[in-house]
Amino acid sequence: MPRSVNSVAAKKKRKKILKLAKGFYGARSKLYTVAKNAVEKSRCYSYIGRKQKKRNFRKLWIIRINTAVRKFGFNYSNFINILKNNNLKLTRKTISNLIINKYNLFKKLIKEL
Predict the structure, then answer these.
(1) How many Å apart are CA 78 and CA 21, to the nearest integer?
(2) Which residues contact residue 29 at a Cβ distance below 8 angstroms, ignoring those fewer than 6 apart?
(3) Which domains does the chain have, with CATH numbers?
(4) N or C: which end of the chain has fewer CB within 10 A?
């Protein structure tokens, strides 16, 4: 009995991996086995990177808030505490956007506290 090989599916699988490895350096984009390893590792990094992105943006917002609030004699932790005590539910992202885009509104907010 002749040997049956599903070359269509195998070729499709290899092409998919090589397409994902497009733009990688050297053999990482040309050879299937090397590309497979590189793609696998890059997917791990992208998963981790999505988590780090959230962390980094939160850090950035906190730094922006801290520098803006210090001009008015507060520090970051005192400012957040005052917001909580006044039941103002503003996220760090919205406060940061206020600082960047509508600084006058931010000044009014601080003066009312």
Answers:
(1) 49
(2) 18, 21, 22, 23, 35, 38
(3) 9-112 (1.10.1900.20)
(4) N
